[in-house]
Design a protein that fits this description.
Elements: E1 2-12, E2 15-17, E3 20-25, E4 28-34, E5 39-48, E6 50-55, H1 78-91, H2 94-111, E7 113-120, H3 136-148, E8 151-158, H4 172-186, E9 192-194, E10 196-198, H5 206-218, E11 223-227, H6 231-241, H7 245-251, E12 259-263, H8 269-278, E13 281-284, H9 286-292, H10 299-304, E14 308-311, H11 321-336, H12 351-359, E15 372-376, H13 390-397, E16 403-408, E17 411-415
Parallel strand pairs: 1-5, 6-7, 7-8, 8-9, 8-10, 10-11, 11-12, 12-13, 13-14
Antiparallel strand pairs: 1-2, 1-3, 3-4, 5-15, 15-16, 16-17
Helix pairs in contact: 2-3, 7-8, 11-12
The structure holds zinc ion (ZN).
Length: 421
C-alpha cells in the first residue's frame, strides 16, 4: 500500500522544507518531493530516525546504581565500574536479558533511535558451558528487538581471555560457528542483521583477530571492536605487541570499509591515518565516555580526515541521540576555547556533520527504509525557532522529549504517551 505523509516540514541536516511529502510503500521511501495531498501530520516535522551504533542493552540495569563511591574503594574509575557491570552480567538469563533489552529498546524508540547495533558478549551459562542452544542469549536479545519493532544489527562478540567465563569461547572456530548459525537463524527476520565483533585487543589475541577479520571480509560483514578507550589498554597492547591498538588491527587485517572502531578516545594521529587509509569508521559514545571518565575523542582530527562517525549510547547512562551529538561539539568547544569547531569543509555550521553522524546520512531519500521520527514543533524547546534553524535547534537546544512518534519501515512503533506494539 502506498501512503503519503504530509508533515509541516521535512527535515534534513541542512534545513526544513514545507510543502513536501514522503511517499512510502512496503516499508521503503519511494519519493520525497512536492505534495499537497496525503496524511496530514500537523505540528510535526518528519526527520530520519537515529542510528544507535553501540549498545550493551543489559547495562541499562546499572542506571543510577553506580553513581556513588564504595567506601572501601575511594578511587572510582572505569575498572571499578566494570566490576559492578560484571556482577550484573553474571546474573543474566535468556529471559532476563530479553526483558532488560526490551525495555532498553523501547526507551530508544521513544528517544528517536530507529536502529541499534548490539555488541553482545554474554553468550554462555555463568560457568562458561554453552546453553543447549548455543545462541540462546543472542536470540533472546534479537527477540527483544522484534518485540519492540526496532531495527537490530546483532554483533556476537569474540572474547578469548579475561572477563567472565560466560563471555569466553574455547576457540575462534567455535565462536565463528556460532556467528554463522545466528546468521542462518536471522534469515527471514526483516529487522535483524548479524555481523561480528571482537571485544578488544585486550580480550582477543592476534590469531583470533586475523581469523575473525578474514571471516568478516569474506562475507562482507559489519565488523566492530572497542579500541583506545582507556590508557591502560594501550599500555598493555604496546607491552604485548609493540604496537598501539589500531596499528595491531591494521597488521591483523581487521581494518576495512565495514570496520567500526568503538571509542577511539585516545587514538593518536598515526592511528587515525590508518583508519583513513582503510576507510574504517569511528563510533563515539560521549555520554558513556563522560560517565566513565574515559576522556573525549579527537573529534577535530576525525573530521579533518573525513572519517565516518556514528554515535552510540553504549552503557545507556542516557538514551538521547540529541545529547550524544551535542556533547561532541560542546566538548570540542571546551577543549579548544572556540565556538563552532566541528565544521566540515564548505559548511558553516557543525550541525550537518553531527546530524549525519546521528542519522547515517544527511537526510532520507528514495530507496531508504521508512525509518522516521516525528518532531513535535509545539514542544517548548522548539517554540519560536525559524524553520531554517530547526536542525541546529535539535542538536543544541533539544532533547528526546521533542520526539512525538517513531516509525520503522513505515510502521508506527512508538507514540508519545504510550508505545504502539
Ligand atoms: Zn562498549
Amino acid at each position: 500500500m502506498r501512503r503519503t505523509l504530509l508533515p509541516d516540514f521535512v527535515l534534513d541536516a541542512y534545513g526544513a522544507r514545507s510543502g513536501v511529502g514522503v511517499i512510502i510503500e512496503d516499508g521503503s521511501i519511494v519519493a520525497v518531493g512536492p505534495a499537497t495531498e496525503g496524511e496530514r501530520l500537523s505540528g510535526r516535522a518528519l526527520a530520519p530516525g537515529f542510528l544507535n551504533d553501540h549498545s550493551h542493552a543489559f547495562q541499562r540495569g546499572l542506571r543510577g546504581a553506580v553513581e556513588r563511591i564504595e567506601p572501601s574503594r575511594p578511587r572510582d574509575d572505569f575498572w571499578t565500574w566494570r566490576e559492578q557491570m560484571y556482577a550484573l552480567a553474571e546474573k543474566l538469563t535468556p529471559d532476563s536479558i530479553r526483558e532488560v533489552s526490551r525495555r532498553c529498546y523501547e526507551e530508544m524508540l521513544s528517544a528517536g533511535y530507529t536502529s541499534v547495533t548490539e555488541f553482545h558478549y554474554v553468550h554462555h551459562r555463568p560457568d562458561g558451558t554453552p546453553y543447549d542452544d548455543a545462541g540462546a542469549q543472542a536470540k533472546a536479545v534479537a527477540q527483544a528487538a522484534e518485540d519492540t519493532g526496532i531495527r537490530l544489527l546483532l554483533l556476537p562478540v569474540a572474547y578469548a581471555r579475561g572477563g567472565l567465563p560466560r563471555f569466553r569461547d574455547p576457540s575462534v572456530n567455535a565462536f565463528l560457528q556460532r556467528v554463522d548459525a545466528l546468521r542462518e537463524w536471522s534469515q527471514g527476520r526483516p529487522l535483524i542483521e548479524v555481523g561480528v565483533a571482537a571485544h578488544s585487543v585486550r580480550a582477543v589475541p592476534r590469531g583470533w583477530l586475523e581469523e575473525i577479520a578474514r571471516h568478516a571480509h569474506r562475507d562482507d560483514l559489519p565488523l566492530h571492536i572497542h579500541a583506545d578507550e582507556q590508557p591502560r589498554e594501550i599500555e598493555e597492547c604496546q607491552a604485548e605487541h609493540g604496537l598501539r591498538p589500531v596499528e595491531l588491527l591494521a597488521q591483523t587485517g581487521f581494518l576495512g570499509t565495514r570496520t567500526t572502531i568503538i571509542h577511539a578516545t585516545h587514538a593518536v594521529g598515526k592511528e587515525l591515518d590508518l583508519l583513513s587509509e582503510y576507510g574504517a569508521s569511528v563510533c563515539a559514545c560521549p555520554t558513556t565516555e563522560g560517565n566513565l571518565g574515559d576522556g573525549f575523542l579527537p573529534a577535530e582530527e576525525i573530521l579533518g580526515r573525513n572519517l565516518g562517525l556514528s554515535v552510540g549510547s553504549d552503557s545507556h547512562v542516557r538514551i538521547d541521540p540529541f545529547e550524544e551529538l551535542r556533547e561532541i561539539e560542546t566538548n570540542a568547544r571546551r577543549l579548544s576555547g572556540r565556538r563552532n569547531v566541528l565544521v566540515a569543509e564548505e559548511e558553516t555550521s557543525p550541525t550537518p556533520w553531527l546530524l549525519r553522524a546521528g542519522w547515517g546520512s544527511y537526510g532520507r531519500e528514495a530507496g531508504d527504509p521508512a525509518d522516521l521520527i516525528e518532531i513535535d514543533l509545539s514542544h517548548p524547546a522548539l517554540a519560536d525557532v525559524e524553520a531554517r534553524n530547526l536542525p541546529s535547534a535539535l542538536v543544541f537546544g533539544a532533547g528526546s522529549g521533542v520526539v512525538a512518534g517513531t516509525q520503522v519501515e513505515g510502521r508506527k512503533v512508538h507514540e508519545r504517551g504510550g508505545t504502539v506494539g
